[in-house]
Amino acid sequence: MLTKFQQKVYNLLKKIPKGQVTTYKILAEAIGRPRNWRQIGKILSQNPNLKDFPCFRVIKSNGRVGGYSRGIKQKITFLRKNGIIIKKDRIVNLESCLFKFNSKGKTQSAK
């Protein structure tokens, strides 16, 4: 059974549109726990349903791809299928594809 915090994380993952990414930090801020970005990473590493909760769309704040339970190569493959441009494990078009949530956890695109 998921904790309320885990449920919030997974529910926000569903809001990240195809072709966009967000960061662990942005996700933590959207939940109201801006310093818990490492905990976000741990929760995502235990994702019970990769199809319904697209955790591959969460990256590091510096634009690097970050980890993935199926490996970084698989994460890069998924991101590229979503139109994300990657060179040397870094998102090239980060400014145009970065997804943010507003202060109430609702969606707000950078586009």
Entry keywords:
single chain, 111 residues, alpha+beta, two-stranded parallel sheet, two-stranded antiparallel ribbon, globular, disordered C terminus
What is the helix/strand order? Answer: HEHHEHEEHEE
Q: Span from first to last CA?
A: 36 Å
Shape: globular
Helix content: 25-40%
Low-confidence stretches: 107-111
Number of strands: 6
What proportion of the residues form beta strands (DSSP E)? 5-15%
Biggest sheet character:
2 strands, parallel
Provide the structure class.
alpha+beta
What's the arrangement of strands in the largest beta sheet? 1-2
| Count of helical stretches | 5
Radius of gyration: 13 Å
Please state the average pLDDT score. Answer: 90
Structural features, described:
This protein has 111 residues and is α+β, with helices and mostly antiparallel strands. Helix content is 37%, strand content 13%. It is built from 5 helices and 6 strands. The chain has helices spanning 4-13, 24-31, 37-45, 72-81, 94-97; strands at 22-23, 58-59, 86-87, 90-91, 99-101, 107-109. The strands form 3 sheets. A two-stranded parallel ribbon has the order 1-2. A hairpin with a 5-residue loop joins strand 5 (99-101) and strand 6 (107-109). Helix 1 packs across helix 2 and helix 2 packs across helix 3 (37-45). The longest helix is centred in the first third of the chain and has 10 residues, at 4-13. Residues 107-111 have low confidence and may be disordered.
